[in-house]
Amino acid sequence: MKTITVDFVRHGQTIFNTMNKLQGWADSPLTKAGIATADQAGQLLKNVTYQATYASDLKRAMDTAQHILQPNAFTGELQTDTAFREVFFGSFEGLDNDESWQTVGQSLGCQTQAQIIQKYSFEAARDAMHQADPRQLSENGLTFKRRVDAGLQRLLSRYADQDRILVVTHGTFIRSLVLRFGPQFDVLSSFPANGGVTTLQLTTANPGFDGLVTSYNRLS
């Protein structure tokens, strides 16, 4: 059996975040506050020894990772992996967050994404958005889960027992991990914060892998 520790960090605040816009594969730059948050996360993690560092291939995550790594002794190359991208919101990309989820949740009698997850499941929220998407572009639950699992499995296969990895990623991505591997944390009323650190222990299992979230949304 092999166990690795992965620190998942949500990117710093972006322009779309300040506008309450859905931001999945669409991208917008970090704000000044977002850069400051990334630097703060870097100070929090500066004494952590990492065997590898990753970011999603979206610019907001890569820029955040560069700021986090500046004070760290890590000398390797920052790698990117599309598996660690945010959920793809399809035709809802760039639209108002609250209005979009009211539209998506209408058929389920829900007003927000959190209500859909609480009443049904995280996968149901993804499926509902896919069905409400007029172009059917947004990721459904199974597609998203397979993508995430592929990324986690790659980390487990590449690194040795007790290695520690940094992954700079996105809010809904982190929320999905906590719902799955950290049910003791209230991720529905406290969305992952920009620059927040969530730690997941990944362990090989037969078949696949298992996980345990040991800390959520750490900012200090």
From TrEMBL:
Residues reported to bind substrate: R10, H11, G12, Q13, T14, I15, F16, N17, R60
A Gene Ontology term for the protein's cellular component: cytosol
Gene3D superfamilies, per database record: Phosphoglycerate mutase-like
GO biological process: negative regulation of glycolytic process; regulation of pentose-phosphate shunt
Catalytic residues in the record: H11, E86
Keyword tRNA processing in record: no
Site (Transition state stabilizer): H170
Source superkingdom: Bacteria
GO MF annotation, one: fructose-2,6-bisphosphate 2-phosphatase activity
Keywords noted in UniProt: Hydrolase
Entry-linked InterPro entries: His_Pase_superF_clade-1, His_PPase_superfam, Phosphoglycerate_Mutase
Protein name according to UniProt: Phosphoglycerate mutase family protein
Organism: Levilactobacillus brevis (strain ATCC 367 / BCRC 12310 / CIP 105137 / JCM 1170 / LMG 11437 / NCIMB 947 / NCTC 947)
